[in-house]
Structures are given as structure tokens and as C-alpha cells.
Amino acid sequence: MDRFIQYLPIISACILDVKIQNSKFWKKEQALFSQTAEYALRASICLAQGAGGPMRAAEISAATKVPQDYLAKVLQALTRAGIVAARRGTNGGYALARPAGQVSILDVLNAVDPLKRITTCPLGLPAHGTKLCRLHRKLDDALATIERSFAEATLDQMTDASSGTSKPLCPTPG
Amino acid sequence: MDRFIQYLPIISACILDVKIQNSKFWKKEQALFSQTAEYALRASICLAQGAGGPMRAAEISAATKVPQDYLAKVLQALTRAGIVAARRGTNGGYALARPAGQVSILDVLNAVDPLKRITTCPLGLPAHGTKLCRLHRKLDDALATIERSFAEATLDQMTDASSGTSKPLCPTPG
DNA sequence: CAAGTACTGGATAAATCGATCCATTTATCC
DNA sequence: GGATAAATGGATCGATTTATCCAGTACTTG
After folding, report:
1. Nucleotides on chain D within 7 angstroms of protein Cβ
2. Which of A19, A27, A153, B81 has the fewest CB atoms nearer than 10 Å to its CB?
3. Beta strands A84-87; B93-96: pairing state
4. SS3 helix, strand, coil % of chain B, rounded to 5?
5. Is the dihedral of CA B29, A149, B115, A159 positive or negative?
6. Does B35 touch chain A (CB under 8 A)?
7. Contacts 24+ apart (CB under 8 A), A68-73
8. Are A95 and A52 in contact (CB under 8 A)?
9. Which ranges constitute the DSSP H helices of B84-132?
């Protein structure tokens, strides 16, 4: 036979399944959003809640469960991006540089882990397109949707204070 | 003064901007989608296009510009997930295990880099919520949107053959 | 000004991802 | 059955991300 059996029968799939169990499955832990982005968002929203005064890194770390020394790096990035303002010495700490209603989730994300839109073909064939580009338009559509959604979401909308209900928090998986 | 100046004046922002230039900016390269996911999608669509017969790894590598040895790992993962069927030896190669119209982008993504929805509070406070959970609902909404979009997009929709126009490819950035 | 506080930033280590090499296994062709 | 072809899987390596430590700097208080 020189014709390839393209669609394997069910029985072959079963054999494949066994092999999945027997070999170390190549599994990635990577989430869609980076750990750093998660940390930056937690910290920013934490600052948006305690809007009274500056919070020290140790306080933010305790409230958000972000490793303190790593949080320092994240806050530095947010400071350099102009999203938070840092103050040293006694009674120092971090505070938002703008009102929470004027800082979007996208602002925070872009400060630490920029959401890169797909503008050129990753295959690097500029003049003549390749066969893959419907894919990249689809992927970039998804990026655009997220970008729009996150650009409209401000930090104050993420705080408890933005609603009458006091505990609308994380639902349990059920 | 024991009251923190929360909203720094413009002049301070300028000073901050200077510091951005002078220090090594903490910049991440990570895109929203992993390199492996990109490779897996390219390879899958490549197989969907050449739907005639099996393609060897070297051929797929040449067509998709994925490093050949790494592509082998990606294809192994797709094989174990039952998305592609592999055949060894002369005239061997890879082919889709199902018709391209029955394989979604989400299927491919989940095979190599699962899109993990947020079902529980990452802060690990199950009973009593934390102050951060509006955020995670927002993030998970984004994940849900992407998941839905990618579940509906099949590989054959990503091929050139799915349209009358022959070159609707990657637009140049302009 | 002296002491103490808290952010800053450099150096470093651990973990994961991306990439490569090569021996082995399985299939086809003659 | 032997030679060849091509995927498989183990080992390794470099780059990036995540995490930690600590000396230095700037700011406040008294």
C-alpha cells in the first residue's frame, strides 16, 4: 500500500492513549497571563483599595500574597511606568500615581508584560504571504478583544467599593 | 507633613521618565501565546493544507519555519493528544487524525499549552473571599471569550482553500 | 545632624521554556 | 532479510522567568 491511512480507526487512538500514560507527558505550566502580570494587578488593586495613604511593600505583600522581594521588582516596574508613586523613608510606601478610575488593567499589564499585538507575519515573508496568515488574523483578533476589554476596565471597578455588595468575591469552583 | 501626596504633579512624572531611560528597564518578552502554541498551530494548519498525504517533519519544518528538532517534540505532543497521526519509515510522516473541519484551534492549543480557566481564587482563601476577586472574574471572562472563539475556529477555516481569494495573507504593518 | 525606615538596584540561584543532538524503534523498499 | 527512511524519546544546553539576598540610597523623624 502506498496510500497513507489518514484517519486512524478508533482502535489506534486507544493504543495512543496508552502511550500517553507510559511516557512522561510533555505538559506546560504556562498560563495565558504571566505570574508577573498577576502580581502587578493584585498590587495595583490593593493600592486602589487602600486609597487613603501609601502602603509599604511589606503590607502589600501580606495583603496580596506576592513574595515580598519579587513584589519589590514589580512595584519598581510600575513606578517606572508612572502608574504608582514611590516614597522612601519613614512613612514611605507606594500609592497610585493617578486616581484608580484613571488606571486601566491594560495600563498595568503593559507596564510589566506588554500585550503585543501581531502586526506582521511571524514567518517573516513580507511581500508574498504565507499560507498561515488566517491564523494570525484570528489570533490578533483575540488579542484585540482582550486589549479592548482591559483598556475599559479601571482599577476602581475591581475594588469591593465599586459595588453595594460587600462580598462578591471568588466563587468556589462549583 | 504627614499626609502623602498621592497624585504626583506632572513634573514628578517627568523625573520618573528620565529614570526609565537610565536604568535597565525590566522588560519581558513573553507574548500572550507561547512559542510552542504558535508552532503547534502552524504545523497543524500546514497539515490541513497539504491534506493529500502525510508530510515529513522536515517538510513541515521548511514550510512553517519551526526548528526541526523542536517541531518533532511538538508533533509528538499533538500525536499523543490524538490530533495528528504519525507513521514511521519510508513514506511516513504526519497527517491530521481527523478532517481539518473537525479540529479546532482550541484542540491544538490544549494539546501543547492548555488554556487554563480560573476557577478558584489564586490567593487561596476559599471561604472568605479576598478583595481581589473582581479582577479574577474579569480575567476569566477574557479567557472564556478566547476559549469560545478558538473552539469555533477549525483548521480548515485557517487555510487558503477556505476562501476564493488566493492571497488574503498577512498584511504589512501599515 | 544622627538614627532609623523603606525603596532601589545589582548579583545570584532555581525553575521552566525553547532548542538541539543522537541513539533507538518501527516501517517501507528492494 | 538487509538497507534505508522517518518518527520516538532520552539527555543536554541556553535563554527567559521567577524568586531571593543584600548593600546602597533617599527620606523622615527627633
Report:
1. 4-10, 16-22, 25-29
2. A27
3. unpaired
4. 50, 5, 45
5. positive
6. no
7. A70/A39, A71/A39, A71/A43, A73/B26
8. no
9. 105-112
pLDDT (tens digit per residue) in B5-46: 333 332 233 333 322 323 467 778 888 999 999 999 999 999
The answer to whether the predicted template modeling score (pTM) of the entire model surpasses 0.85 is: no
Separation in Å: C9 C1' and B133 CA: 32
Dist. CA A2–CA B92, nearest whole Å:
10
Distances (CA, A) of B169 to A121, A126, A133: 9, 10, 5
Q: Check pLDDT > 60 for residue A170.
A: no
Query: Which of A127, A53, A22, A17 shows the shortest CA–CA distance to B170?
Result: A127
- The x, y and z cell numbers of residue B105, run together, are 484551534
Read off the C-alpha cell for A144.
Answer: 484585540
Query: How close B58 comes to chain A (CA, Å)?
Result: 16
pLDDT digit string, tens, across residues B41-84: 999 999 999 867 899 999 999 999 999 999 999 999 999 999 99
* Distance CA A154 to C1' C26 in A: 58
Å between A94 CA and D25 C1'?
A: 17
> Given B12, B129, B168, which is nearest A170 (Cβ)?
B129
Each residue of B155-169: b (16+ CB within 10 Å) or e? Answer: bbbbbbeeeeeeeeb
Phi, psi of A139 (to 5 degrees): -65, -40
Angle (deg, nearest 10), helices B57-64 and B35-49: 110
Reported confidence tier of residue A53, pLDDT bands at 50, 70, 90: confident
Identify all chain B residues contacting A9, using CB atoms and an 8 Å cutoff.
none
Q: Which domains does chain B have, with CATH numbers?
A: 35-159 (1.10.10.10)
Question: Chain A closest CA to B142's CA: distance in Å?
Answer: 6
- Estimate to the nearest angstrom the gap between the alpha carbon of A135 and the chain centroid: 22
A165 residue type, one letter: T
Q: How many CB atoms lie within 10 A of CB B130?
A: 21
